Amino acid sequence: MEAELATVALGELCEFHGGAAFSPEYQGRSHGHLPFIKVSDMNSAANAIVIREANHWVDEPDAHAMGAKAVPPGAVVFAKIGEALRANRLRLTVRPTLIDNNMMAAIPNPTIVDPRYFYYAMSQIDFNVVAQGTALPYLTIKSLRSVPITIVSDMDEQRRIAHILRTLDDKIELNRRMNETLEEMARALFMSWFVDFDPVRAKAEGRDPGLPKHLADLFPDRLVDSELGEIPEGWTVRRVEDLAEKVAMGPFGSSIKVETFAAEGVPVISGQHLRGLTLEDSSFNFITHEHASRLASANVRRGDVVFTHAGSIGQAAYIPRTSRYERYVISQRQFYMRCDEAEVTPEFVAMYFNSPTGRHRLLANTSSSGVPSIARPVSYLRTIPLTVPPIEVIRVFSSVSGSLLNAVASSKGLNRTLAQLKDRLLRCLLSASGASCD
User: Fold this and answer.
1) How many CA atoms lie within 13 A of 65 on its CB side?
2) For residue 189, what are the contacts with CB-CB under 8 A and spacing of at least 6?
3) Which residue segment(s) compose the domain that 396 sits in?
4) SS3 247
């Protein structure tokens, strides 16, 4: 039996709450009673659905001084102006939360609509249609109140639908946290072996390095001086240019534009795909294979390490051997390194440039005028020195860390499938309470 549907104005289901100006003197605190959310906080993977993390926290007296009023748990928060609005990103609060004045909250009436169901129902609204303005689109409370929204009338049915969709969300979140743990394990192993030199120090002090004998034997038992400070005996200081088959830039900005995108073909890598140690093989824009071939110097493949040199600078991720595509094209803000795998592996290089030492060296040539950028990124990357162990040690590390990161890549693939399933269920459950689902 089909559930009864009703189309009502959005304003009949909720109240709207505007954000407050966030005084700079209160920003940047890591502790407090209330999270103060900015649009940028919605970029965090941990905040993909529910606001779990915040870069800024304030106490209640500070909120009062700013004239900021917290929205309650169960509110739906979203950007109200500019490019972030176009992205249609909605997030759900789970605790009293402050939002800045570039955001807005919809607070559902829990007597007529289940808050979690309301979040899913709102996610079907295209804010771009509602927005006013062209160059800088914006939302107003008046325009939002009159937006028509179709919902299931029965609240028990709303809760059942919300439970189904939340189950998928919870599985996606569980996988995400597992991926974080696996990446942290790989990072910790890199830091122990190649930054802190724990096995070498243990052997030098006559302690058990805590490794099987065949692994412990790969490490020397003393440190020696080098231009980078103390390093294990027998290890060398090398420049990136000594370890790379190729280092190259992305194309000119005019080479890849909206009008050059195709429905399918070769995927274009941008900063959003470089948030972890491995490529985020998620949704892409594409260009044709013919166009990609004309940009041959910007083509990348499995095993290449891709960096961002402008905007969100300092990102570094490698394309895993289990990637969805064999060929990609990097955008104008990226550059890449193709490893000479007789000398070094992609896992090692990506880990190095995600370590504090590697990030510091990569960002040491940053220009602060205009858009943040790394000056002369290709020529500068080639000159960066790093401590390089014998290839046998690197390969052992890459075998272990690669297994962990391949599991991460597989889990991300599962999450893509779950997200697609959720989107399909979302459309059919909210349109007819499952009557049209097959």
Assistant:
1) 10
2) 397, 400, 401
3) 158-206+390-438
4) strand
**Domain annotation covers residue 15:** yes
53: domain CATH number?
3.90.220.20
Are 385 and 239 a contacting pair, CB within 8 Å? Answer: yes
pLDDT < 50 positions in the chain: 1, 433-435
pLDDT digits (tens, 9 = 90+) for 335-388: 999 999 999 999 999 999 999 999 999 999 987 666 788 999 999 999 999 999
Residues 334, 316, single domain; the answer is yes
What pLDDT does residue 237 have?
97
Instruction: Indicate if 80 and 62 belong to the same structural domain.
Output: yes
What is the rounded CA–CA span in Å between residue 437 and residue 99? Answer: 37
* Residue 33 domain-assigned (yes or no): yes
For the chain, how many helices (H) and strands (E)?
A: 14, 23
Same domain, residue pair 384 and 410: no
Q: Which residues contact 268 (CB under 8 A, 6 or more apart)?
A: 256, 261, 284, 285, 286, 287, 328, 329, 330, 331
Structure pTM? 0.80
Residues 384 and 398 in one domain: no
Q: In the β-sheet with 34-37, what is the strand arrangement from edge to edge?
A: 57-58, 34-37, 98-99
Asked whether residue 143 falls in the same domain as residue 194, the answer is no
Q: How many residues does the chain have?
A: 438
Domains identified in the chain, total number: 3
Beta strands in 195-273 (DSSP E): 223-224, 231-232, 236-239, 244-249, 266-269
In this prediction, residue 368 carries a pLDDT of 67
